[in-house]
Amino acid sequence: MAIQKFDADLDIISKLSDYPSEDGLETDAFKRKFDLGPNLLKDYINDILIPALDQIVDVEALLNGILDPTLTKEDKAARAREVGLALNARKMDVGRILNDAQSLGDFAISGGKEFECYFTGDNTVSVKGGRCIIQGNLIELPDDYSVELNFQSGLGGTYRNDLICMRVTRDADGNDAKSIVLIAGTEALTEPSDPAYNTGDINSGAAVRDFPLYRVKMDGVTPSLEKLFSTDRKLKITIPASGWTGSGPYTYTVKAFGLADRRRCMVYPAYGDDTDANIAMREACGCLCYTKRDGQNITFTCLEDKPETDIAVIVEVYV
């Protein structure tokens, strides 16, 4: 059975003029525009998605079949497997539909230990459980989950990035195996690259998908941890003055891990309490002309002059 796709136009706010009066909207009508998108999605879930899923599998009937006292042990096991497969099929359908409808991407959500991470030795790091959305699917590790990961020592005069990832492996039956893993990078003499990680589609059969949580940064033999996700839809990123490439225009690309990576976001300066530092950063921001986003990549462009000081920005999902 084919489920009707959610194809409503959610570009509601972005199509408004800069001022409500330009669209002939009074205050109440303007405020209702912000509720329109969520209400469209709510109506789709309640009126189309849930009834359609109920027709795909009658879970109650399957459960009653398992409890049938006339069945043999083997028949009950077979029925139980049918229930598991049916529920997994529903899980994949829901994940696929939600991911397509809201373009969710992968991001962490609040609750539990929120993937707390800390060094436990010279070459070991401990990571706790947490919750995240991966392609429309809730993936979670319990509060009592804990894993200790080992990483290689660094080499003097080199740099390396390792990635700590939440990994979900979904088999052909839709069963998920979840764990936290470390993916080792390679040494570099200057700016190191992140190692490759799995980006398979877990809503389309057996696949592995990784969600980066932390970067273990090796500066020679000294390790440090960089958090790559946020549970409040905001992420602070620093653009170093030394990292720009080109000769006019100048560009700098960063990865905004841990946000809803296919939804709209805004980028704005993250000023602190030091007035002199704020003035210097404001002057540096004056060099920025525009930004573009491609999935997790955000590219900043300066058409003429590049900044002479670091710039701290906040990347925030707003739709």
Question: Can you characterise this structure?
Answer:
There is one protein chain. With 319 residues, the chain is α+β, with helices and mostly antiparallel strands. The chain is 25% helix and 32% strand. It is built from four helices and 17 strands. The strands form five sheets. The protein has a four-stranded antiparallel β-sheet with strand order 8-7-9-10, with no helix packed on it. A four-stranded antiparallel β-sheet has the order 12-13-16-15, with no helix packed on it. α2 (59-66) packs antiparallel against α3 (73-102). The longest helix has 30 residues, at 27-56. The two termini are 31 Å apart.
Q: What is the 3D shape?
A: flat
Largest sheet data: 4 strands, antiparallel
* Share of helix, binned: 10-25%
Overall residue-averaged pLDDT value: 80
Largest sheet, spatial ordering of strands: 8-7-9-10
Q: Give the oligomeric state of the chains in this entry, treating copies of one chain as homo and distinct chains as hetero.
A: single chain
Rg from Cα: 24 Å
Individual helix count: 4
Order of helices and strands: HHHEEEEEEEEEEEEEEHEEE
C-alpha termini separation: 31 Å
Structural class: alpha+beta
**Unreliable segments of 5+ consecutive residues:** none
Number-wise, the strands total: 17
What is the percentage of strand-forming residues?
25-35%
